[in-house]
Specification:
This protein is α+β, with helices and mostly antiparallel strands. The protein is built from eight helices and 14 strands. Strand 5 and strand 6 form a beta hairpin. The radius of gyration is 18 Å and the shape is globular. The mean pLDDT is about 90.
C-alpha cells in the first residue's frame, strides 16, 4: 500500500470533499432541478453549485489556492507565482447529469509546479472513489470504506494486453482527427472495440485496463483531466498533447487543454514499443 507524504492532510480533505459533494449531487439528482446556460454555452445546475460550495469548504482548510470551474478565476498575474494549487471540477459531466444517464463525476487534483501529483475521481451514483498519484499509489474504494485503509483496493498497472484494443471516448465529438486516429489503430491492430462514456469516468476504465486509450480532439478544461492524468501517470500511463507528444501541464494562462491522447502503460508498450 502506498504511503502518504507531507500532503497527507491535504489529500484527506480532498477525499472527504469528493465524497460529501457526491452525496449532495445524488440528492439533487433524485429530484427536480433547474438548468441554466452560462456565458460560454455550457450548462450549470444547482448540483454544480452545491458541490462547489462543499469542496471549497473542505479544501480551504488546506491553505492551498483553488482553481475551479464554478469559482471566479484568479488572474494569471497572481496564479503564475503559485507553486501548488487545487484544480477542481465540482460536477464533471453536467450535460450527462441533465440527461440523467448517470455518467458524471467529481474531480479534484493537486497541481505542483504545473504537474498533477494527486487526483481524486468520485463516481456519485456508484458511491466509489478512485484516487492516487505517483508518490502515493492508486486505490479505489467505496464511500463507506474511505476512512478504513484496510478496505482500499490497490489498483495495479496492467503491463501487457493481448486483448483487442479498447478505445474509450465521449458520446459526441467524433470529428475528423478522432476518425484518423481510429483508422491508425485499426491499421495496426485490425480490431478495436469501444466504450462510450461521459466525463472523467473514462479513467476508471483506463485505470483498470478495461480501456487502453482515450483520444480527445474537442475542447476540455484543466479541471476535466488533471485528476485523471495524476492517476494514469501513477499507473505508468500518459496523457499527451496530441501535437507535441508532451504531457499536459496545468495552471496555464489559458485554462483550456490542448487536444490530447491518454494511454495506459500496456497500450504504450504494445503500440509504441515502450519499455
Amino acid at each position: 500500500m502506498g504511503t502518504l507524504d507531507a500532503y497527507e492532510s491535504a489529500y484527506r480533505f480532498a477525499l472527504l470533499a469528493a465524497k460529501e459533494a457526491s452525496e449532495e449531487i445524488v440528492q439533487i439528482y433524485g429530484g427536480q432541478f433547474q438548468t441554466e446556460i452560462k456565458s460560454d454555452g455550457s450548462p450549470v445546475t444547482e448540483a454544480d453549485l452545491a458541490s462547489s460550495k462543499i469542496i471549497d469548504f473542505h479544501l480551504s482548510k488546506t491553505g492551498i489556492p483553488i482553481v475551479s470551474e464554478e469559482n471566479e478565476h484568479t488572474s494569471y498575474e497572481e496564479r503564475k507565482h503559485w507553486d501548488i494549487n487545487w484544480c477542481v471540477d465540482p460536477l464533471d459531466g453536467t450535460r450527462e447529469f441533465v440527461k440523467r444517464n448517470g455518467e458524471f463525476a467529481v474531480n479534484i487534483a493537486l497541481i505542483r509546479n504545473g504537474k498533477p501529483v494527486f487526483g481524486v475521481i468520485a463516481h456519485p451514483l456508484e458511491k466509489r472513489i478512485l484516487f492516487g498519484g505517483t508518490e502515493f499509489g492508486v486505490f479505489e474504494t467505496a464511500f463507506e470504506h474511505l476512512d478504513t485503509k484496510e478496505n482500499w483496493v490497490n489498483v495495479e498497472p496492467e503491463d501487457e494486453t493481448n486483448a483487442p484494443i479498447t478505445v474509450t471516448c465521449s458520446r459526441a465529438y467524433h470529428n475528423g482527427p478522432v476518425l484518423q486516429y481510429l483508422n491508425e489503430l485499426e491499421s495496426q491492430f485490425n480490431q478495436i472495440e469501444f466504450i462510450k462514456k461521459g466525463s472523467s469516468l473514462k479513467f476508471f476504465d483506463l485505470a483498470h485496463g478495461r480501456a487502453h486509450t482515450y483520444p480527445r480532439f474537442a475542447p476540455t478544461m484543466e479541471w476535466d483531466i488533471a485528476s485523471g492524468q495524476a492517476i494514469l501517470e501513477a499507473l505508468g500511463g500518459k496523457v499527451l498533447h496530441a501535437s507535441t507528444g508532451q504531457p499536459l501541464v496545468y495552471n496555464k494562462e489559458n485554462l483550456f487543454n490542448p487536444y490530447f491522447l491518454a494511454h495506459t502503460r500496456a497500450f504504450l508498450k504494445r503500440w509504441l514499443g515502450e519499455k
